[in-house]
## 1
Amino acid sequence: MKIVGISGSPRKEKNTEFLVKLALESIKEKEPSVETVFIPLSEKYFFGCLSCGYCHEHYGCSQKDDLYPVLEQLKDETIKGLIIGSPVYMGGMSSQTKAFLDRTVLFRRNQFKFQHLLGGALATGGSRNGGQELVLQNIHASLMIHNMIIVPDSAPTSHFGGAVWERVPGGMENDPIALETVKNLGYNMASLIQKMFLK
């Protein structure tokens, strides 16, 4: 079985990608049998949903752009969960993250293919209280539209997901509480995988 991590940052090998990879590593640490797949949206050129209606009639997207192969990859029925990471831009998720989530409507319109998959969220912002929790909740809302099972970070933090302030003095590596929320999201998802799929 697989868990897929999506980095919705337009920047390659920056904070969001680091955090998504950290969450995936935490899943593997707790449950080595799970295959993790990392998909960055950086350096991909694509638009949001055009509301063309194509996916009402077809299990696919009409836009054959850089996001098309990503959407095709997500048809893999061994995928049991998604972790979506986004930077905070203007108090909300990145346009790349929003466009990606909107384009996943094709799975909803084709027998709710994402139904009962696990879903987690990560957000990193330049300000301590710059909108991370709002971004997490907005990602959760999109996942709930798919009837996915929302996974928070686990105890002792146990809030909405991984929330990080990237400008902490010395770098976010010096913010152990924030990084703990990211790791705990991975650990919590691994625990749910064990209970739901590995009984």
## 2
Amino acid sequence: MVAAVAPRIVIACDDTAQRLLQTLVLSPPPGMRPDVHLQLAQLVKESLGDPAHYRTSVDKKLLAPAAQALGVRVPEFAIVSSLAEAESFAAAQAFNVVLKRGFGSAGNDVALVSGREAMARAYGELTGKVELNLEGATGVKLLLQARIPGRVRHHTVAAMRGKLLAGVTREKIIANPSPTGPATVTRYFRVPEMREAAEKLVGAFGMTGLFAFEFIAHEKTEKCFLLEINRRVTPGTHAAAQVGIDLCAALYAGLHGTPVNTRTDLDPDEEHTLAHFPQEWLRDPNSRYLREQPVDAPWDDPELFEAMLALRHAD
């Protein structure tokens, strides 16, 4: 297919696809001809950027210390390999912590812990899971972080060879399931601190593509703490165009070496709220956000719209 189509870049639409692309570069599949691997690896490098930082950017256990070393604010954390280590760190945080596996998406493989018994239960569940081990990791280690009270925010971007081309910040207003699930209603506004952190990480990791940085903003101080990087297309990627920032156009310009002809961020006092369809409709068909705010729905694609409507009755 690659030979027939001759793609310039490949864009991952889910976490597993993205990890498979990275693994293709870092660990050649047995039996693959060297010339074929060279061709595919070069395509992936053009699509994702510097391979030296692939795993660091997506494995939460590696990202936290790497981001901290770059001066990006992260929650206080520990990498733990035993329940005793986890309990020791959690006790220092009054057992108000978040336990995570290195990989996971849509709120999976994350546990909010608020007591010693809950810690033991969550630790057993997360260490007992059979994980897709594409990276050849040995042993089970988890990331344990102090829990920051506040709302999740994403800075969704287009980047090319370590340069951030355009981006937009959105805050999760409603999540399904709450509180760690995907956003169904989001608020768009400008957050310079998040943009600065994103630019720093894009440059340090030599990143290319469409992806999103996930932060949590403290409910009192508004300080933003990096949680993870989703190195794939996210719902915010296409929705950014609805607030005047076309990330796909920015990536196209970067790929062809032409000026970016879209806005690269929101104005300082600009703000928008979007309800996402079918997500918010599936959560609550009577949601006031569906009546009061613009709805991100495929109005121009009747077949896709019908398929989304059918999700309510899917098993």
